[in-house]
Amino acid sequence: MASLLGVSLLARAAITADVMALTMHVVLGRDMSYAAAGGVAAALTAGVALGGPLLGRVIDRRGLRPVLLTTAALQAVFWLCAPALPYGVLLGASFAAGLLMVPVQQVTRQAIAAMTTAAQRRAAFALESVQGELSYIVGPSVVILCAAKTSPEVVVWGVGAVIVAGGVGVALLNPPLLGGDEAEPGAGAAGRPPRREWLGVRMIAVLVMGFGTTLLLSGVDLAIVATLEEADQVSWAAVVVAVFGGSSIAGGLIYGALPRAMPTWLLLGLLGLVTIPAGLARDWPWLCVAVVGAGLLTAPTLSTVADAVSRLAPAGVRGEATGLQSSAQSAGFALGSPIVGVAIDVSVPGGGFAAAGLAGLAAALTGLLLSRRPPAARRAGGDGQEEGGERPAAAVGTP
Questions:
Q1: N or C: which end of the chain has fewer CB within 10 A?
Q2: What is 195-377's CATH topology?
Q3: Does the record carry Membrane as a key word (predicted)?
Q4: CA distances for 74 relative to 13, 24, 85, angstroms
């Protein structure tokens, strides 16, 4: 587990920085507009969102190593050639690169589900969420620093090299993706259950809440920049973001040590509630204080989403399920900034925090309503798992 998390952190830090690396290349290396850079970023993000479930399905059918080595080889080709591609070709190639991005994050989640018992998974996924926060803090910051010291082309090649190295590293570790005990549903001879048996309302509820969580987080990042720009303190944005990330890491470690889990809808609802008042802050010191509450709930909310997906998905389809989770969260990141940006444009920068928080509350309410449907309305065996908790006794052993 320690080796997997170490190699995964390296790869995830590079993957979280890939959009920034391409942005620096288009804006600084090609002297093009930020709109042009946004087009490349959108193409890459769209590819990642669509490719997650497809790669997960192939992993379920063909195994881990073929997928990791193939995607790593294709990433090597893309990142090596990206600086020389015409802009139009770069757009299409970025989409293809996103579609075939090395699936390190979802493989890590699958492996955690397979390598831990039900009692250990909450703490393990909390640690995985902390790892994700570290990657978001380190990756883009290193890219920006390197872009200031070297050429954007070197940064692009460096990011690509780390992504490839991470994919190959995980392939060499070859972590198990299926549990070895008989309690793993869908493992071994049981094979791959039909999608209608596991993609029920409870799984959809979890995916909606995963989407809402990342939409909120993406919106908060933009609202922080907008608030500090109005106060003429944009240079302090990195400090506020660091406080936000640091409090999220602390929250993940604290939550992983708690004796009992909390439902995703409750954590997301609380995250939405504490995000809204952050809009009252008018300068960077108060903004640092205001984002601590949201930060403490960020990693716990993300970890409960991953934990719920692992519990609801039979082992034979866990790759596809974690791919759907990655797609939902990627879509939230992609849509958060535009939605909150509109709210900021029609109101004040503080309105961005309100919009992000309300979006999180709406997703939490939707998840609660879906997960609380009457038992008669649920598919037998497909969504009997209690979200964020243990499997009900009546559902154990259901065909």
A1: C
A2: Growth Hormone; Chain: A; (1.20.1250)
A3: yes
A4: 19, 22, 15
